[in-house]
Description:
Chain A has helices spanning about 40-55, 100-105, 115-130, 135-140, 155-165, 180-189; strands at about 1-5, 35, 70-75, 75-80, 85, 90-95, 95-100, 145-150, 170-180. By secondary structure, chain A is an alpha/beta fold. Chain A has two domains: about 1-55, no CATH class; about 70-180, no CATH class.
Amino acid sequence: MPIVMPGRRPAKRFQDSKVIGGKMQHGRKSVNAELNVVPMVDMMTMLVIFLLMQFSATGEILYMQKDIKLPDAQHGQTIESAPVVAISASQIVVSGVKVAEVADVEKGEDFAIPGLEERLRDEKKRWDFIHQNDPDREKNWKGDVNIQADQKVPFRILKRVMYTAGQAGYFNVNFATLDQSNVAVAKAD
Amino acid sequence: MAGGGAPVPESGGRGGKKKRPLDAVINVVPAIDLLACTISFLLFTAVWTQISRLQVQTGGAGGPPAAEEKRQIQVTVTLGERGMMLTTSAGIAVEIPALGKSPDGQPVQDLKTLLQKLKQVKNEYPDQSSLTVAAEDGILYLDLVRVIDAAVGVGLPSVSVTAAG
């Protein structure tokens, strides 16, 4: 890629001409230079290839939260779009909306969590509305729900969340984990 | 392209006939523009944290058992404060005690031993694909996920989670 001094200069075909080519130089040293862009194009191509390999068509289904530290797993599957129940040490959140406090859930005598059940039933109603024209709607209903819980959440909270999800029609529970399958493969190599 | 290959001589041969120069300059600016746009798009849409899922069924909520499952046995891992207990309907009962306690008072489960025992069960019953994890109330999500991950890794992908006791 050439870098040329701004201003008038002879056309390329006249650059070698002794008659016209020299007229515009006015005896000064030329500042025109050729910039080698090959390494830059190489680098950009490699960057594009790397980013394409990282690219995920499903997008970000779960958003990492500061108060939720996910456990690692080596044999997880690709996460799919489904309602997300996020359980931190203090609260339970469904798709960004807080439905219950963990302390209240622990104190509560009822096994189901009313706020969570209501919210999940709303999600199911929304799914039913979207698929109202689908004749195989009942068959296509998979009942998937993603549970994004902190490592330190005890099972007594989890089982109530799972029970409530089941009550709302979500019986296929997916535990969200950090994918370490690449790390496992690298260690095996 | 600037800085590309060596120039081709403008004239050659003995004929003395001047040939047309074969040197050419390829304009790489559009290619660089395209690459820059692609990189920007990919950087904006990149997902840096890879999150996976471990699918489980809640206790007793799975579909009707398939005909093939009749040949399978019932494998249960009971996860408790003192350790784990692997039991099967074929009569195997193995206790895997916890290795100790972590600084925060939680039991450290012996996952290596569990992995070995699950491999033995899988070798003995190659058709086996289901496992039930029964956890006590105090068990952490971390330990539950580790046990499920071990089971899936061994080749028992149909994991059901239920409460112990």
